[in-house]
Amino acid sequence: MPIRIQNNLPATEVLEREHIFVMPEDRAFLQDIRPIRILILNLMPTKITTETQLLRALSNSPLQVDIDLLYTSSYLPKNTAVEHLTKFYETFDAVKERFYDGMIITGAPVEHMPFEEVAYWPELVEIMDWSKSHVYSTLHICWGAQAALYHHFGIPKYDTPKKIFGIYPHSMTYTKPVKLFRGFDDIFYIPHSRHTEIRKEDVLACDKLRILSESEESGIYAVSDFTCRQIFITGHAEYDAGTLRDEYLRDLGKGLPIDIPQNYFPDDDPSKEPVMRWRSSATLLYTNWLNYYVYQETPFDLTTMAPTEPNR
């Protein structure tokens, strides 16, 4: 799939080295087609890394996808240069009159804080409410999933005794076939890196939600409404092979209590190169979302889309 991104975005060089077809803005404008429009709200501090990971995950489809990048204006990230944000990102005020086929809301390293104490929570609530009338299908990742489940459905998050950190086996839970997991193996592997969780009993108590996938070790993985216009993913299929290693070494360097990521290093030896066992799962997850819940469902004229039903 040609991904249309802004000219000179740092991710372009990385993706082109991996032979991923990236189409600059000026070339895309010459094509007389209706591309899929995706908005990425990037809440991660390492914005360039997250951009690259998500663009890679979105790159396995014959569809042309136009990407817009969004950050919260109520909180200025400390780990990304202002020049990068100014050049490649927009604020909500700049995009709120637009309509999108799909949207991705990333995680954020604010798990230990109550949602209402997060600096940009009011703005995030406004964006999540806006997405129900201006975005056809929204994919929420990790803390972004917890935040949306809490805001839309009142599902709380809970601290875990220790960090859920590693590569875990998962299986499908929902009894009927779900297109989001079409082509997945019966057991598939996904990275997790989080200190909090949502609990099964809370999700099951909500008749507007269904659990799609779980892991005996890491808990609930995927939840959706019954139309898949809102999807909530607790893991990180988009992670690179070395992401958990980098997080492990970072925390060690800070003197933080951190275990070796589970099921990650061969023989649990951090000196050995980790084996990537989730590449196909990442490809299928994002391709299926784009194809079945974005491309095949959205109206040609996005302004005619019906808003999602009230959640509460």
Fold and architecture overview:
With 312 residues, the protein is of the alpha/beta class. The protein has one domain: 3-Layer(aba) Sandwich (Rossmann fold), CATH 3.40.50.880. It has ten helices and twelve strands. Strands 1, 2, 3, 4, 5, 6, 7, 8, 9, 10, 11 and 12 form a twelve-stranded mixed beta sheet that branches.
Give a quick set of tags describing it.
24% strand, 12 strands, Rossmann fold
Summarize the structure.
This protein is 29% helix and 24% strand. It has 10 helices and 12 strands. The model is unreliable at 27-32 (pLDDT under 50).
The total count of helices amounts to 10
Assign the CATH topology: Rossmann fold
The largest pleated sheet is described as: 12 strands, mixed
Q: How would you name the CATH homologous superfamily?
A: Class I glutamine amidotransferase (GATase) domain
Mean pLDDT: 89
Number of domains: 1
Given helix and strand content, the structural type is: alpha/beta
Task: Provide the β-strand percentage band.
Answer: 15-25%
Listing every helix as H and every strand as E from the N terminus to the C terminus, the arrangement reads EHEHEHEHEHEHEHEEHEEEHH
Oligomer: single chain
* Sequence stretches where pLDDT stays below 50 over 5 or more residues: 27-32
Radius of gyration: 19 Å
Gap from first CA to last CA: 37 Å
Task: Please give the number of β-strands.
Answer: 12
Q: What general outline do the C-alpha atoms trace? A: globular
Helix content: 25-40%
**CATH architectural designation:** 3-Layer(aba) Sandwich
The CATH first-level class comes to: Alpha Beta
